[in-house]
Amino acid sequence: MPFKSLGLDAHLVKATRDLGYTEPTPVQAEAIPAALTGRDVIATAQTGTGKTAAFLLPVLHRMINRPRGAALALVISPTRELAEQIESVCRGLSQHTPVRSVLVVGGRPMGPQDRALRAGVDIVIATPGRLMDHMQQGTVRFDRPTTLILDEADSMLDMGFLPDVRRIIARIPNREQTLLFSATMPPVIAKLASEILRNPATVQIGRRAATAVGITQAAYPVPEHLKTSLLRHMLRNTEMPSVLVFCRTKHSARRIARIVGADGFAVAELHSNRTPAQRTKAMEGFRRGEFRVMVATNIAARGLDVDHITHVISLDVPTVPEDYVHRIGRTARAGADGDAFIMVSPAEEGAFSRIERQVGQRLPRITLPDFDYSSTPPRPPSPNGRGPGPAGGSQGRRPAQPPRNAGPAKPPRPGRGTKPGFR
């Protein structure tokens, strides 16, 4: 079915051809006609299925057919990276139209955003925090009829943005249409939808929290202390053109990136300790193929839209099964195939079993025959910092003995000894 059959403006149909969109994805085929009627829409679909165009195309269509400045559309996204990609798709789809959009996110100067908002725009694509900054300064108002789009609503819940989103919604009195798109629908988001949507059309594509088609998954049982060594072994001995590695913490991501880089791989980092400029450079370089490996925290589980990622490797087992689904959804995008590997330590078997129940399958366990799984973990230092503790070679050493004929220790004289507050 071509995009033309959905009833879209000819300028938008031309843009879809220019961007290489051959036919609507299932979520686009169902959501776009419903949104074109002006109805509220709640859509749930797996990551990588084309949700961005599913909400942008009907919004752009309605903007084209209205006088400039007559209405406003607000797209709220949980992360700066995802907002940037939405704005990029919006520019591509609106290239043959007079519709203007502005990106309102943190990590960028307020001045240019302020001037663009005051000059007048049709679509505002924003993260909650920076949008609230502009609302408090009065540079953006929602006194026009407004279409509100909440993208990745479940991620906003996970990241603690829901209170801000509720405050923003309360300041949009003239809301004429609301579109809520999400990969999963936890109870809190379902409750929010029931509060803000009016008689919505419901679009459900696939099983909730299911993994995308085209992903080959496997688990690698391995002791915790050998995960980094196993990653290095896999990178050296497996054909992996473009690899996204997930770590639980930013400190782990930084350490893994340093180790992988020392092995001679072009590697980038993506976590909250990186500046906005560094994050942009890492994402753009990874997208262009300048980096073979990207090491990231869950900040990249949503909003990293790179078509050529061949492998996703999780060095930890997420405690929330949906996080695993979002992670592996970074591969096998745009109809491609991909591999998703997860390293599972004995202590993580319980959390991994919950993931298997979530995805509805038992993942194959793989043990590499040419990897040494027998290495013992390093011994922790002794309390005095002088080498291994009791399990590490101090056996047989006599404990320190007090000098002979030494009486009981005398208390320090007043005013002598450690100074107050000194450590």
Automatic annotation (TrEMBL):
Biased composition (Gly residues): 386-395
Ranges where the DEAD-box RNA helicase Q domain occurs: 1-29
NADP among keywords: no
Helicase ATP-binding domain: residues covered: 32-203
InterPro entries with a match to the protein in the record: DEAD/DEAH_box_helicase_dom (IPR011545), DEAD/DEAH_RhlB (IPR044742), DEAD_box_RNA_helicase (IPR050079), Helicase_ATP-bd (IPR014001), Helicase_C-like (IPR001650), P-loop_NTPase (IPR027417), RNA_helicase_DEAD_Q_motif (IPR014014)
Motif (Q motif): 1-29
Pfam family, one: Helicase_C
UniProt-listed CDD domains: DEADc, SF2_C_DEAD
Record has Acetylation as a keyword: no
Family: Belongs to the DEAD box helicase family.
Protein name in the entry: ATP-dependent RNA helicase RhlE
